[in-house]
Amino acid sequence: MTATTTDTDFIHVFEPGSDPARRPLLLLHGTGGDERDLLSLGRTVAPGASLLSPRGKVLEGAAPRFFRRLAEGVFDEADLKRRTDELAEFVLWAGERYGLPAPIALGFSNGANIAAAILQQRPEILAGAVLLRAMTPFSEPPRAALTGKPVLILSGALDPIVPKANAEALAGQLGASGAVVEHHVLPAGHGLGQGDIDLLGGWLARN
Ligand code: MLT
């Protein structure tokens, strides 16, 4: 059963898992999404995993996001830093409340960008991350110790929002901090397809 809960300052869904061997997933939606968007993807790619799915608190018009941007691909980094800490504290709270170990983030687009920001600013919060159509969140990333943390980045060769070089730069930054990065560029745009699902299901089964 899933229920949307508002007993912290993040509206969120928590769906308890049935397989304790699976790491919980922290699901982070894209711009205009909400806490329900990635639940079925999470169930498909990590059967039996607990799912924790917050709704971004920043509104762009009516569209929820996880942090403010000044233009497409141009981020308000002061807000990003603050929102990254706020989301990290929520994940710690939820870990206590629901009895969870550190989760693997599974983020899409804006959700992938804040997942990358958590890795770089609060590396202790996550056991790893799947970053779908992510870009570098910080112009000058904090030095994180990510030794051995697994990270999967799936980019689209035809993505009009994330330039190829930017996704490569993110993979380079995380790898230089010690993460075990697997980066695939799919023949796709910004949207997700079956190729993403196959790759990420396989990766999650190994991590
Ligand atoms: C962002 O603002 O995080 C990126 O431009 C991706 C998006 O949400 O469109």
Describe, in plain words, how this protein is organized in 3D.
It is built from five helices and twelve strands. It has 207 residues and is α/β, with parallel strands linked by helices. It has a single domain, classed as Alpha/Beta hydrolase fold, catalytic domain (Rossmann fold). An eight-stranded mixed beta sheet has the order 1-2-4-3-9-10-11-12, with helices on both faces. The chain has a two-stranded antiparallel ribbon with strand order 5-6. The protein has a two-stranded antiparallel sheet with strand order 7-8. The protein is globular, with a radius of gyration of 15 Å. The mean pLDDT is 95. D-malate binds next to helix 3.
Quick structural summary:
With 207 residues, this protein is α/β, with parallel strands linked by helices.
Number of domains: 1
The helix/strand series, from N terminus to C terminus, equals EEEHEEEEEHEHEEHEH
What small molecules are bound in this structure?
A: D-malate
Poorly predicted ranges: none
Instruction: Return the CATH topology.
Output: Rossmann fold
Q: Please, what is the CATH homologous superfamily?
A: Alpha/Beta hydrolase fold, catalytic domain
How helix-rich are the residues, as a percent range? 25-40%
Class by alpha and beta content? alpha/beta
What is the terminal-to-terminal distance? 26 Å
Based on CA atoms alone, the radius of gyration comes out at 15 Å
- Strand residue content: 15-25%
Largest sheet: 8 strands, mixed
The whole-number mean of residue pLDDT values reads: 95
Tally of helical runs: 5
Extended strand count: 12
